[in-house]
Amino acid sequence: MMRRFEDARILMYSHDTFGLGHLRRCRTIAHSLVEDYRGLNILIISGATIAGAFDYRARVDFVKIPSVIKLRNGEYTSLEKHIDLHETLKMRQSIIRHTAETFEPDIFIVDKEPMGLRGEVEETLAYLKTRGTTLVLGLREVMDAPHLLDAEWKRNDVMRKIGQYYDRVWVYGPPDFYDPLVGLDVPPTVRSKMDFVGFLQRSVSHDHGDDHRPSGDYILVTTGGGGDGAELIHDVIHAYQQDPTLTHRALMVLGPYMPAKQRRKLVRKGSKIPYIEVIEFDNRMEELIAGAKAVVAMGGYNTYCEILSFDKPALIVPRIVPRQEQLIRAQRAAELGLIDMLLPEESADPLRFAAALKALPSRNPPSVNAKGLRLEGLPNISRIVGEWIDGRGGKEPLRVLKR
Prior knowledge:
globular; alpha/beta
């Protein structure tokens, strides 16, 4: 039964410097909430260059802030070459603050970067706190290797600021999968704010016909945003070139952020192999994963949720620099028997990779070893938000799934 709120508002922030992960996570949560609650309006602030390439449900909209991209060495640069980074960050900060003032949200959810890119959200957090907005930090279940995250957060005094500004910290995974702050010195004040809400279940939209999926059996190869996905695509093509007995049909999605030169080269190489079809981007990845026999991926958060949601045999080749997030997630999932994993140096061996690809479609789906690993994030978030908005008179927020 859908409930109705009178003009409740949620603002979400997704910095999106590299890839699509943050925007896709925010959009998934937003769509689930407006489906559950009438009268709820959600606005997503996004730095993703292609924020407009996705469909948004009624009562979900986005504000695009100037894009900043993260280079492979971890440094940032303006996407618009003629505007310097400092000016771009000033514009972003100003738009974020102005949006918050005008939209007047009941709840503000910040994705992954506690103070935003280079601290751009801190001023808005301070402002909204004086207005009584409920401030939520949403963390992936895996952030990075503890020593890297610890150094980054200490440099910017992040842990103290989380304690100062945020009312709750949501972890988008179950407590027994991984703790994103493992190995960090987490003060009790911050630990007491953490709710492990669970993985975010994905589903196929029923607004479209079924003609979107390719017909017949195929293995889906996806690199997420694709900015650093060329090596994986190259290794798959190389495996097909070297092993003529590898004849599974493969559908490869390069991702919108793959550099044009790499993209052209891979499209050309792939076109010479009859079993491979290469496409550049699809804004309805859920449908492609739902239709696939198995999935080969780098294993970012969203792809991982989709593999679990649609229960697909998966082979993960994680990115290992500059963040170790994908590696940590893949190691933990492999340890639990949910996926198979190859390191990048292993997938670079074409015969080894070909053997793994041939075995993949007959691998057990994740549910065989999942032992009650449920994807409860969206219903849990919905319940929390419902209780908060019902109690806008200042009732203490609901606590869920303590560790």
